[in-house]
């Protein structure tokens, strides 16, 4: 047995190997590990070969699991996480630092709080208050390495991830890459429409809209016709929140900055393919959100699809056209892809099929969590909604399961607990569905604000956002209407 294990462990010197074994078996709970798990640990024993005898003798067994104890000192499991969104950040925060070494990869250097993008786009809060440098989040975690890189390809056989800055080996790989805007294959719309899937894109919308008002002042009638129409496509929460927010600054904020503009001629359109706004919420929320928006002067066009947009003329499926230089596309998302996964593991919306423990179908050590994961459950036979709450809780479940797996214990299935759905339309105007309970108006708006403040990562940012909101509430004004653009070098 000893020589067998010795061979398995890569031919480690027999005397040292005996020491390692006796040291491992001193760990009481080690006895309860299944033999396969023991072998897995022993296979990693060569790493211990580099230790001095003194170091070997000094190893401690205070941990509940001999593997954990070994890992703590020398042979942690290597987890590579792609994406520092809600899911990736939560997983990295929850994994046991004694057992796992983590490499967190993201193509940008900050975590983004997407639910408040629309407030950046409408000049209500600063971009920095919803963007958190990833290195700062984990500055006290010694076991987490951060790399700013784009993940390009998985080489599952070699347990290797190919990225824009080189290749990385892993024991476990977790995909938490979220979604991107879905243009449903229409490249013309993609070329001309504005999107809201990153802080940078939110700033882009803010710049564009403020530049539009600068242009209206000095434009000729031909251009004015298109400058004075702002179109939002998609009346889910993002579209509704944007439309309400633009309507508020149109009435209360912008006229003070641009007294020369006739704002009664500035139109906000909200276009939706289904029959109602907030189609995933209760009938009451649909009705209330439409009433609020109409009263705020938003033109809602439901059961209509955008067929084409060439940068000036937007054409609907029934032939109606709208002249506009501003189209914000909030009509759907599709999961970010990566090369190297088998086609069998891809579900509709480019999501990745996972089992109840987020393990990707057909793989032993590659997981998907958050928006990118497609998990069928009895409660959600067509997959979970793509929400921050799902991403956060799938990450928590997976971190727990990876620990349980090491101990050889039974893994836990994930299920989404619907804590309610909400959307805000403007000052004192929001809708909330908690099961059968429907709330609207001030109370719903207050709940919406409190919950979003709670979810924001740092205390400093919670405070900044709270002050901004309080200031805007009292003065009906914000002072964040900056057009910020980099100078291009020749
Ligand atoms: C405008 C807007 C408003 C929203 N409002 C709400 C709301 O009110 N409530 C709610 O619950 N949900 C809301 N959502 C949805 C919520 O934001 C998502 O469900 C959540 O962000 C999903 O988390 P995730 O970790 O799966 O992905 P994300 O948070 O999207 O994170 C993915 C990360 O992966 C990175 N990445 C992607 N591809 C690569 C690659 N190839 N290499 C390296 N890094 C990569 C990205 O840069 C990003 O940081 C909103 C979304 C948007 C866009």
Alpha-beta content class: alpha/beta
Radius of gyration: 27 Å
The molecules bound to the chains, other than polymers, are: flavin-adenine dinucleotide
Number of helices: 16
Provide the domain count.
Answer: 3
Q: Can you count the beta strands?
A: 25
Which strands sit side by side, in order, in the main sheet? 5-2-1-9-21
Largest sheet features: 5 strands, parallel
Shape: globular
Q: In terms of quaternary structure, what is this?
A: single chain
Helix content: 25-40%
How far apart the termini lie comes to 71 Å
The proportion of strand residues reads: 15-25%
CATH C-level category of the largest domain: Alpha Beta
Q: Provide the CATH architecture of the largest domain.
A: 3-Layer(bba) Sandwich
Return the average pLDDT rounded to an integer. 87
* Poorly predicted regions: 1-12, 21-36, 56-74
CATH topology of the largest domain: FAD/NAD(P)-binding domain
What does the secondary structure layout of this molecule look like, with pairings?
Blueprint: H1 2-8, H2 14-25, H3 35-43, H4 53-57, H5 66-75, E1 77-82, H6 86-94, E2 100-106, E3 110-112, H7 117-121, E4 131-133, H8 134-137, E5 144-148, E6 151-155, E7 160-163, E8 166-169, E9 172-175, E10 179-181, H9 187-192, E11 194-195, H10 199-218, H11 221-227, E12 229-233, H12 237-257, E13 267-271, H13 283-295, E14 298-301, E15 306-309, E16 313-316, E17 321-323, E18 326-329, E19 333-335, E20 352-353, E21 366-368, E22 373-374, H14 388-406, E23 421-426, E24 429-434, E25 437-440, H15 441-455, H16 459-475
Parallel strand pairs: 1-2, 1-9, 2-5, 9-21, 11-18, 12-13, 12-18, 13-14, 20-22
Antiparallel strand pairs: 3-4, 6-7, 7-8, 10-19, 15-16, 16-17, 23-24, 24-25
Helix pairs in contact: 6-14
């Amino acid at each position: 047995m000893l020589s067998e294990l010795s061979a398995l462990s890569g031919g480690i010197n027999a005397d040292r190997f005996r020491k390692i074994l006796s040291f491992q078996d001193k760990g009481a709970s080690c006895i309860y590990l299944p033999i396969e798990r023991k072998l897995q640990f022993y296979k990693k024993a060569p790493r211990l070969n580099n230790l001095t005898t003194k170091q070997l003798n000094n190893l401690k067994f205070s941990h509940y699991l001999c593997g954990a104890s070994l890992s703590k000192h020398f042979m942690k499991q290597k987890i590579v996480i792609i994406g520092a969104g809600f899911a990736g950040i939560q997983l990295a925060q929850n994994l046991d630092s004694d057992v796992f070494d983590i490499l967190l990869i993201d193509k940008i250097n900050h975590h983004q709080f997407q639910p408040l993008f629309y407030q950046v786009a409408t000049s209500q809060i600063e971009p920095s208050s919803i963007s958190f440098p990833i290195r700062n989040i984990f500055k006290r975690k010694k076991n987490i390495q951060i790399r700013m890189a784009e993940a390009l390809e998985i080489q599952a056989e070699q347990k290797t991830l190919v990225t824009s800055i080189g290749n990385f080996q892993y024991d476990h790989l977790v995909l938490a890459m979220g979604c991107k805007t879905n243009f449903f294959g229409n490249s013309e719309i993609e070329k001309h429409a504005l999107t809201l899937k990153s802080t940078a894109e939110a700033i882009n919308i803010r710049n564009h809209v403020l530049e539009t008002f600068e242009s209206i002042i000095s434009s000729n009638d031909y251009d004015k016709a298109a400058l004075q129409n702002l179109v939002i496509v998609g009346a889910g929460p993002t579209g509704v929140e944007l439309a309400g927010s633009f309507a508020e600054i149109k009435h209360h904020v912008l006229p003070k900055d641009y007294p020369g503009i006739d704002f009664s001629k500035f139109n906000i359109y909200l276009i939706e393919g289904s029959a109602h706004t907030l189609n995933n919420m209760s009938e009451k929320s649909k009705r209330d959100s439409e009433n609020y928006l109409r009263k705020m002067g938003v033109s809602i066009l439901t059961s209509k699809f955008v067929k084409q947009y060439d940068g000036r003329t937007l054409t609907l499926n029934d032939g109606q056209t709208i002249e506009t230089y501003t189209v914000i596309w909030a009509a759907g998302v599709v999961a970010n892809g990566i090369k190297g996964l088998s086609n069998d593991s891809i579900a509709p919306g480019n999501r990745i099929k996972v089992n109840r423990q987020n393990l990707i179908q057909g793989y032993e050590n590659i997981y998907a969590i958050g928006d990118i994961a497609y998990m069928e459950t009895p409660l959600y036979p067509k997959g979970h909604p793509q929400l921050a709450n799902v991403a956060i809780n799938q990450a928590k479940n997976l971190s727990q399961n990876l620990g349980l797996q090491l101990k050889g214990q039974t893994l836990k299935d994930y299920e989404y607990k619907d804590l309610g759905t909400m959307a805000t339309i403007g000052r004192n105007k929001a809708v909330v569905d908690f099961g059968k309970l429907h709330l609207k108006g001030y109370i719903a708006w207050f709940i919406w604000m409190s919950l979003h403040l709670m979810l924001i990562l740092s205390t400093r940012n919670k405070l900044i956002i709270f002050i901004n909101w309080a200031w805007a509430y009292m003065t009906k004004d914000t002072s964040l209407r900056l057009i910020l653009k980099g100078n291009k070098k020749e």
